[in-house]
# Entry
Amino acid sequence: MSQLLPPDPALLGVITAFDNLPPEVLAWLLEAGEVWQYAPGEIVVEAGAPADRMLAVVKGTLQYYATTPTGRTPVFSVEASRVTGVLPYSRLQVFRGQGVTIGETILYQLPRSQFAALEHVSPELVQRLVGIMSDRAREEARAQERDDKLRALGKLSAGLSHELNNPAAAISRAAAALADSLLVKPQLLQDMLAACPPADAMAALIALAVLPTEALPALSALQASDREEELAEWLEEQGCPDGYTLAASLLDAGLGLDALAPVSAQLPTDARIPALTWLAGHLATLRLARDIREASQRISTLVNDVKTYSHMDRAGGREKLAITTGLDSTLNIFAHALRQKNVRLTRDYAPDLPLIMGQAGSLNQVWTNLIDNALDALPDKGGELTVHVTKQSDFVCVSIQDNGAGITPEVLAHMFEPFYTTKPAGEGSGQGLDIARRIVQEHGGRLEATSQSGRTEFTAWLPIG
# Structure
């Protein structure tokens, strides 16, 4: 159990921030504060408790945890010689995490109520502590941005996996069907050659063995069924045992009776079945090869979108950017989530947009937060998401609109405050919009929000590079 230790200036000597302080300052610190010894596993501060003291670890370790209704997660630890808790000029009002001792731990504690007196006793120490606070704030901001991006990527990973799995499965199915199709070709070739078809008949057959370059005219279900039945019956009259199977492949390539009958008439009777079967199989092979190419291109596009989104192939500094490139890569990664909610997406980009000077990965984090929030707000049916990009004076203006229920004025007033969230515990950190606004501000721009019932709009202004 914890116990109060007698004042001893030697205990404060291990604290880095207290190095080389005059003896009278150390004596004041011991008089104004207290030194406590804790057993392993004792809770020193509770999450949500008033941030009422500075803590300095003399011995042992203080481990901080983020707490949720389902448990707690380690966040960071403070080792011996380091200062933690609330510091002079800090705006921290409550402890954000639970602090637990690791091993036997000794802590010096100075109440917040003594900070004003400390300014008179040792302005030098106050300056050191303010420097520590500034360093801590910068580290925390960077950590928040990293964590926020990891959360966003984690949220997108399931959808991205689905997006990659679809073309990968299509490639696998097409490759298997392609192998089956190629297996029968040698026998069909042998059967055709055995019938000794004339060269002009073979030339006419081969002329049909190409896929159309343009989309075929749309047919009603009844028209398509009638054409398939007509062609299947004709194929079976030619001796083909699987007329309906061949008819589907031939019609998919735009070949009906008017194209096939004249060619078939030029062929010897024994050559018609292998020739028509070869033609249907060849056209199916071409379609399978095209499907594999399109699916592989889809995978390449997704990989490029991820690379663009995460900025993996470039340095982390500022550069000239086309703002719509990052927006498109982010929207493409959200494709699965958009389909799941049947969202109608509109991209409205003004022509000839100027470049901006920015850091692509950070800006993509902004778009992720805004789009993710919009998706959460959209109704299950009839959801609409609109992304406008325009040039306004010396800025490129990105507007993300949704037709959700809207944000109340009370919530809107606090929307950009750190750790403010209306989501249930465990579903939102309240950091996303704060980080997004800070990133936009670091780019010399501004991020604003307006909302009414059925229309919420977040707008980012970014200066032209």
Remarks:
- The longest strand covers residues 53-68.
- The chain has 14 helices and 14 strands.
- Residues 159-302 form one domain.
